[in-house]
Amino acid sequence: MSTFAIQTLNAISPVGLQRLDRDVFDIGTDIAEPRALLLRSADLHSVEIPDSVYAVARAGAGTNNIPVDRLAARGIPVFNTPGANANAVKELVIAGMLLAARNLYHAADYTRDLVAGRALSGKDLDKQVEAGKKQFAGFELPGRTLGVVGLGAIGVLVANAAQSLGLKVLGYDPAITVERAWQLSPQVEQVTSVEELFSRSDMVTPHVPLVEGTRGLVDAHRISLMPEGGVILNFARGGVVDEAAVLEALDSGHLHAYVNDFPTEAGAIHPKVIALPHLGASTGEAEDNCAVMAVDQLSDFLLHGNIRNSVNFPEVVMARTPGTTRLGIFNQNRPTMIGQITGVLGEAGLNVAEFTNRSRGEYAYTLVDVEGEVMDDLKQSILAIDGVVRARKL
Ligand SMILES: NC(=O)C1=CN([C@@H]2O[C@H](COP(=O)(O)OP(=O)(O)OC[C@H]3O[C@@H](n4cnc5c(N)ncnc54)[C@H](O)[C@@H]3O)[C@@H](O)[C@H]2O)C=CC1
Ligand SMILES: O=C(O)CCC(=O)C(=O)O
User: ACT domain: which residues (predicted)?
Assistant: First the structure.
């Protein structure tokens, strides 16, 4: 059996890595010709990805750090791990709401300064604690309204948790899946526009991927629709929020706080901003879950050509037919491709035992198990078909 070299570009939980059989997989940070890249937040946009690479796996949800479309054009699937870190993010969002509502961040700074800065102790400390606390009086969550934009793995968990804490919850997601709709608490009210959501929400939390359509989703106009004293939470991506607009609304007093996971130079030092160092998925549990899912999907693809949870190719999973050789073929999604592929197999005198082909957008993927001996030059004949971008014999 051949050995697959997997290059890790970030720290990946050993709970995931130890699932890879070391007789079959080499794993390292410095590999000249990797078969696969395994990463978390490493930015691949300006990295040259060698032709040796068959697949890229993101141990996490967001794939905006990966040139997904360019890799699709080269027949390289990008995998992610939907839902594997959703609970970790949900818990941080709930913590963020409470940090903002009860002014906890500033309150803790205040008490630290009483001792570390002003050296108060004993009765003096007690007196100053009681005198100073009124400036941190906050508000409670029941009766407030939370708007959740994006009801995917994270948005649904946040909406349901907020509902159970007594908040009124509004949700907006024009492309919600049936699975997520079933998971959503029936008390969450669906709104039909982002503007309605902002105008009725005391707090807004986007849980959408960063793509062109969601860049700057939280902007000056939408913030202006919110009631006075609103809170924006951002555990999606920095670019989803127009931060300059948020800072202006904080300065004018229209917004009360901005809690986010993506610090910038201006935001991190603003007194009404709570900026966390991209901690959403940083729990042992989430790191293990993501690593296990990413590794399992990657090894199934490298060994068997199966594609699960790819963001640029369709789901294609086929049980292996005993006594056959498998071919995995990436091609452009256009007419006659299937006929041409099976034509090449027929000309080579090969009988097809199992065949599956699915398309997604501009590209398609075929798995075919063929009987008999498959010569190496067959792969070349398949690659010679106009529109085939990559082929593997497995
Ligand atoms: N802070 C952190 O450490 C983490 C951040 N994230 C971020 O959260 C994002 C969401 O993660 P998941 O919930 O797991 O993804 P998901 O794919 O399960 O859900 C995203 C949802 O957003 C919806 N959506 C897309 N565009 C929309 C729009 N314009 N308006 C309303 N809804 C829209 C989709 O229909 C989908 O239901 C990730 O893409 C990532 O950027 C994810 C994990 C950890
Ligand atoms: O790996 C991480 O810590 C970041 C997680 C994240 O942002 C994601 O899953 O999209």
Answer: 326-394
Which tens digit of pLDDT belongs to each residue from 289-314?
Answer: 999 999 999 999 999 999 999 999 99
Q: Which two tokens stand for residue 122?
A: 């004993």
- Å from CA of 236 to ligand 2 middle: 9
For the chain, the structural domain boundaries read 1-84+283-313, 86-97+140-275, 103-137, 314-394
Per residue in 178-192, pLDDT tens? 999 999 999 999 999
Q: How far, in Å, from the CA of 68 to the mean position of ligand 2?
A: 16
The residue-averaged pLDDT of 195-218 equals 98
- The interface predicted TM-score of the complex, written ipTM, equals 0.99
Which fold, 86-97+140-275? Answer: Rossmann fold (3.40.50)
| HEC-encoded secondary structure of 57-79 | EECCCCCCCCCHHHHHHCCCCEE
CA 138 – CA 156 distance, rounded (Å) = 26
Q: What is the pLDDT of residue 2?
A: 61
Hey, which CATH number is domain 314-394, 3.30.2390.10, 3.80.30.20, 3.30.70.260, 3.10.20.740?
3.30.70.260
Dist. CA 251 → ligand 2 center (Å): 30
Strand 203-206: give its sheet, edge to edge. Answer: 189-190, 168-172, 145-149, 203-206, 230-234, 255-260, 273-275
Q: Which of 48, 130, 212, 265 is catalytic?
A: 265
Q: Which of 40, 180, 237, 256 is catalytic?
A: 237
Q: Which of 89, 207, 218, 283 to mutate to test the pocket of ligand 1 (most atoms within 8 A of CB)?
A: 207
Topology agreement, domain 1-84+283-313 and domain 86-97+140-275 = yes
75 phi-psi bin (left φ>0, alpha ψ -120 to 50, beta other): left
Q: Which atom of ligand 2 is nearest to the CA of 40?
A: 1
Please count the residues of the chain.
394
pTM, rounded to two decimals: 0.96
Could you say which architecture CATH assigns to the domain 1-84+283-313? Answer: 3-Layer(aba) Sandwich (3.40)
